[in-house]
Specification:
Blueprint: H1 6-16, H2 25-30, H3 40-70, H4 74-99, H5 108-118, H6 129-148, H7 159-167, H8 173-183, H9 191-207, H10 213-218, H11 225-258, E1 269-270, H12 286-289, H13 300-306, H14 311-324, H15 332-337, E2 353-356, E3 362-365, H16 372-392, H17 405-416, H18 421-426, H19 439-450, H20 453-469, H21 477-489, E4 491-492, H22 517-536, H23 552-564, H24 570-578, H25 586-603
Parallel strand pairs: 1-4
Antiparallel strand pairs: 2-3
This protein binds L-captopril and zinc ion.
Length: 610
């Protein structure tokens, strides 16, 4: 493989000024005996030009998207649709152009960047301006419907409020059911557009050489697309026994609370009783299922309230954690431009997100609630920002991304795994560390958040892969969704659903077309990262008692991986961190080993499974 010497970098720069042929005297000579074809130098020039083109529009696209997400109106939707139309057109043309170099032997970076260009888009449009425009309109409309939370008759719901009802153990079964059903009144109107979106994006994906859009999504993981799906299943197989134990215990406790008529002892759990709108993480029902131990686990929401933390203080505390690891503070513009509190006078897309609008402009947008759940989400979001800054400052345009999308989702969560009693004591949120008997409830709370999530993280894209490849046809969207929910999560719809319901549309990432396997990966990887960083931080106790707070060594190790961006395969990036390139659930299982033991004793005599 050839290295990029300064000399051929200069040659490439000259190439960009126009006269392509003049840049390749050697090739020109060869052309006399061989028919002309693209050369390695062409490929390098192509990549360099693509990086310039992509960089040129990046900030403008980001500004448009920011304004749209912060002021959801007809006008900002239209502006966003226009911008995404242009971005998709460029993305498709760059991907098609990159294919011309398929047969060439190229240096590592040029080949890698061409592959990144070929699979860069999430929803490619066909090379047809009308279809591209139609796709862009559909996607920005779907996004806006979710943000507004209104039915097509303009009856509107506040997702934050409805979620609050599901999270509140004192609310009745009926109140929870109403909240659950109400939010799902928003999605029926998405169904037709979603189907059309699938058709257009599939046509676009085929034009780029992928079997369908799902195959495109699975191709982004430095391994054959089919192998990736198998890898996900393999890791799920590792976690499944622990999940089943947790489901079994939670079901038994909910059965005690609500009775046989509401929660059966043997079947799937009704989805409205698990503390979360999508039954994706169950930490909010902790009280209902907690082990009764001598010492109580710390109630972080209660502590944040007692210390009167404001939204901005919650963010500052999260930033402090990263600073304790050796990261520089976020720039002043982060504090000036971010959105922390839901505005009362306009519609914003409240689903939390982290943004880089340029190499110096980082923001989050979040409707922060002053509770433990959002305190963790803030760390999640800042993880994105610190990752973005680390690679933006080191890497060229096409490598300004995470090793794979699961890595991006894992960084803030990794840091948040260190939010335990020893850390809370260090920052003064608690005065005393509870004795060891509080470990079990602590682990239960973590499992309700992390283990409960794993099958949900798997099924969202299993559903979409099926939708994109036609195994789940448009007249069976909802049936297919609930089949997966039951099979993998052991969760069922609490009331009869019809195809009109289109329940997947009530989850942000579906109308938003954000691939979801990333969160599954993140839930596995964050424990691998945590285990490794704890070792470096010199922690010797059990994993759940380790906090890497203040460890510059751990921070340096983390930063070394973040700085790589996408310049190496994710397996190589993982290796720099853990010494092995394999994704592996042994860390998450290690972490929860004491809980697994406890669950086994609790479940003895219960009939598990569903
Ligand atoms: O969407 C998110 C983040 C933004 S990337 C808040 N998460 C997933 C979700 O809410 O469904 C984090 C965990 C899973
Ligand atoms: Zn995220």
């Amino acid at each position: 493989m050839k290295k990029n010497t300064p000399l051929n970098k200069l040659a490439m720069a000259l190439c960009l000024t126009g006269a392509l042929a003049a840049c390749q005297p050697e090739q020109a000579k060869k052309e006399e005996i061989k028919p002309a074809g693209p050369t390695a130098a062409d490929a390098r020039a192509y990549v360099e030009k693509a990086e310039k083109q992509l960089e040129k529009d990046y900030e403008y696209q980001g500004q448009t998207a920011w304004v749209q997400a912060n002021f959801v109106t007809e006008d900002t939707n239209a502006l966003m649709a226009r911008v995404s139309e242009q971005a998709t057109k460029l993305g498709v043309s760059l991907a098609l152009g990159a294919k011309k170099f398929n047969d060439l032997e190229l240096d590592y970076d040029t080949r890698r960047k061409l592959e990144i260009l070929k699979a860069g888009l999430t929803l490619p449009a066909p090379e047809d301006d009308a279809l591209n425009a139609e796709l862009a309109k559909i996607t920005s409309n779907l996004d806006a419907i979710y943000a507004k939370g209104c039915t097509d008759k303009n009856e509107c719901f506040n997702l934050g409020q409805l979620s609050g009802i599901l999270a509140d153990p004192s609310k009745s079964n009926q109140e929870k059911l109403d909240a659950w059903v109400n939010w799902r009144q928003v999605s029926p109107q998405m169904r037709k557009d979603y189907k059309r979106m699938v058709e257009i994006a599939n046509q676009g994906s085929k034009e780029l050489g992928f079997a369908d859009t799902g195959a495109l999504w699975r191709s982004k993981y430095d391994m054959p697309a089919d192998d990736f799906a198998k890898e996900m299943d393999r890791v799920w197989g590792q976690v499944k026994p622990l999940y089943n134990s947790l489901q079994c215990h939670v079901r038994a406790k909910l059965n005690e609370k609500y009775g046989d008529d509401v929660v059966s002892k043997t079947g799937p759990i009704p989805a409205h009783l698990l503390g979360n709108m999508w039954a994706q993480s169950w930490g909010n029902i902790f009280e209902d299922v907690a082990p009764q131990t001598e010492a109580k686990a710390t109630n972080l929401t209660e502590r944040l309230t007692a210390k009167q933390y404001s939204e901005v203080e919650m963010v500052r505390t999260a930033e402090d954690f990263f600073v304790s690891l050796g990261f520089e503070r976020l720039p002043d513009t982060f504090w000036d431009r971010s959105l922390f509190v839901e505005p009362k006078d306009r519609t914003v897309q409240c689903h939390a997100s982290a943004w880089d609008l340029s190499t110096t402009d980082y923001r989050i947008k979040m409707c922060i609630k002053k509770n433990a759940e959002d305190f963790i989400v803030i760390h999640h979001e800042l993880g994105h920002n610190f990752y973005q800054r680390a690679y933006n400052l080191k890497q060229p345009m096409l490598y300004r991304s995470s090793a794979n999308d699961g890595f991006h989702e894992a960084i803030g969560d990794t840091v948040a795994l260190s939010i335990n009693d020893s850390y809370l004591k260090e920052i003064g949120l608690i005065d005393q560390i509870p004795d060891e008997s509080a470990d079990l409830p602590f682990l239960m709370k973590m499992a309700l958040d992390k283990i409960a999530f794993v099958p949900f993280g798997l099924i969202v894209d299993k559903w979409r892969w099926g939708v994109f490849n036609g195994e789940i046809p448009a007249d069976k969207y909802n049936e297919g969704w609930w089949k997966l929910r039951e099979e993998y999560q052991g969760v069922k719809a609490p009331v009869a659903r019809t195809e009109e319901s289109f329940d997947p549309g009530a989850k942000y990432h579906v109308p938003g077309s954000v691939p979801y396997s990333r969160y599954f990966l993140a839930h596995i990887l964050q424990f691998q990262f945590h285990r490794e960083l704890c070792k470096i931080a010199g922690s010797e106790g059990p994993l759940h008692r380790c906090s890497i707070y203040g460890s510059k060594e751990a921070g340096a190790k983390l930063n070394a991986m973040l700085e790589l961006g996408m310049s190496k395969t994710w397996q190589e990036a993982l290796k720099t961190m853990t010494g092995s390139g394999d994704m592996d659930a042994s860390a998450i299982l290690d972490y929860f080993a004491p809980l697994q033991k406890w669950l086994d004793t609790q479940n003895a005599g219960r009939q598990c499974g569903w």
